Amino acid sequence: MPLYYFEFTNVTHSSDGGALDLADDQAARLEAELEASELLSDPGGGDWSQWNLRVTDEAGRLVTSVSLSDMAEQYAGPVAMI
Description:
about 30% helix, 4 strands, 2 helices
């Protein structure tokens, strides 16, 4: 299985988010979205509004970049009534 590296970045800082063995690029993208949504759903998790979650593969190729700011805006949108 390929190894994918997760890194949280903003304008002035970066933080190693670890590495995971995942099946493929699609699995890495889904994992990034899951991690980002978990951070945003934690009420005591702090301000992630200017952060991105970057995922690269073993060769250093960018697989995906998730904007936590964009995701936060989606969560703040109207809630659908069922």
